[in-house]
Amino acid sequence: MTDAPADAPDTATTDPDAIAERIDHDETIELLQELVRIRSPYFEEEAITEFVYDWLDERELDPEYHAVSEPDITGFEGNNVLARLTGTDPDAPTLLLNAHMDTVELVEAWEEDPLSGRIEDGKLYGQGACDMKGGLAGIMVAFDALAAAGIDLAGDVLFTAVVDEEGPYGLGANQLIRDSVTDDCDAAIVTEPGPILAQRDIENPALLLGARGRFLYDITVTGEAAHGSQPHKGTNAVVDAGRLADALTGIEVGSHEQLGDGSVCPLKIEGGGETLSVPEACRLLVDRHVVVGETEDVVRADAEAVVADLNLDSGVEIDFREAPAPDVRYGPYVTDADDPLVGALRAGVEAVTGDDPAIGYFSSVGDFNYFGHRAGLPTVIVGPDGANIHGAGEFVHTDEVVGVARIVAAGCVALLA
Fold it and tell me: What pLDDT score was predicted for residue 6?
């Protein structure tokens, strides 16, 4: 990892406006196009990981590979990419910049090359363009601009490009926590697309100061097999699982002033299979988004109460999705609007746009939950907007990618200079 370059220009300044102006629009979008053209679904990030490492290395930013391993459930082996700008004061805050490198699997419904990086009417198209290669490009150029400016920042800036955010466990961010990489951090900026997944309609510039959490019920329903021509002699686990799935949607979910309401959504019923037999077992997966105060014990008790009220003939075992460790889950969090990080990003937004940012909260989960909940860091999402994320026709607004890069760079200066 590296200090700011020794040959930095004499024009070094701690003015947020000046650092934002160092970020070139066209170079940023060219980088984004290169990133989008690299196929990188989760668990298959080797090519983009190498690209990000080489891009930083070419700029003498001293990147490091950070090994990610999960042998028990997924068998995954991969690498995050880390780099650090070292500040002048060891007692000053360390700021984490984070983006993920992976995408969802390529969607078959695309009517053009899903990795084209085509630009039309200020929109760049491609799988992952908005979620979140736009944000990844943003922190890459912001980090480079901070280094090239030769600013004497008091605190450190830690760049982290991680794998497997779109996968089942967020293994890249989890490894940062597991290996104590986040232990010396004091705050985090994550450049996920913000407004499109906010709890209410907002537009950029926007700062998202928290997110709901998530549990995934993994429920086993056990009935009794019988011949399908005489269903009354058995107990149909599929039927009872269907009744249970419907009843769970009626749970009285929690509510939070900032995060809004929780939610329940059955995702999958899996059971049966014999040609002419009453199904004796069924598996039910149910999503439960939660707000602050809805703990694992509360979530489990809610489901148990529903089961008790139904009085099903089948047996029901309520559990949660298997995870690499008990703490690998997405807890809800809220960052105080008066936190210094929020103030610094407000200053960054004002320096770049002249506006005061909208304030919102994220409706779903991601690596930011690991930083905001598990690591206990004040965490803010500031990212470019677009549309069709996870779907065909995904795009990101190019001007917002550049704007986010400038806001992040200016915010770093406002917080750490």
Answer: 37
CA 282 to CA 268: how far, in whole Å? Answer: 10
pLDDT at 361 over 70: yes
Candidates 339, 340, 349, 341; CA nearest to 17 is: 349
Task: Determine contact, residues 359/334, Cβ cutoff 8 Å.
Answer: no
Residue 185 has pLDDT above 90, yes or no: yes
| Helices 398-416/134-148 angle, 10° precision | 40
What gap in Å lies between CA 122 and CA 45, rounded to an integer?
A: 27
Whether 89 contacts 147, CB under 8 Å: no
Q: Kindly tell me if the per-residue pLDDT of 5 is higher than 50.
A: no
Spans of all domains in the chain:
16-212+332-416, 214-320
Q: Topology of 214-320 in CATH? A: Alpha-Beta Plaits (3.30.70)
pLDDT tens digit sequence for 267-283? 999 998 888 999 999 99
- Residue 285 near residue 268, CB atoms below 8 Å: yes
Length of the chain measured in residues: 417
Distance CA 46, CA 39 (A): 10
Domain covering 16-212+332-416 assigned CATH 3.40.630.10 in the classification = yes
Structural contact between residues 375 and 103, judged by C-beta atoms closer than 8 angstroms: no
Q: Per the confidence metrics, is the pTM higher than 0.85?
A: yes
Using DSSP, state whether 222 is helix, strand or coil.
strand
What one-character DSSP code corresponds to residue 122? T
Q: In Å, how far are 69, 260, 301, 342, 343 from 217, measured between CA atoms?
A: 25, 21, 12, 34, 38
For 31, 143, 145, 343, the CA distances from 59, given in Å and listed in that order, are 14, 11, 10, 30
pLDDT in tens, 224-266: 999 999 999 999 999 999 999 999 999 999 999 999 999 999 9
Relative to beta strand 157-162, strand 95-100 is parallel
Residue 140 parent element (H or E): helix 134-148
Q: Kindly give, in sequence order, each residue whose CB lies less than 8 Å from that of residue 42, ignoring residues fewer than 6 positions away.
A: 102, 103, 104, 163, 164, 165, 166, 167
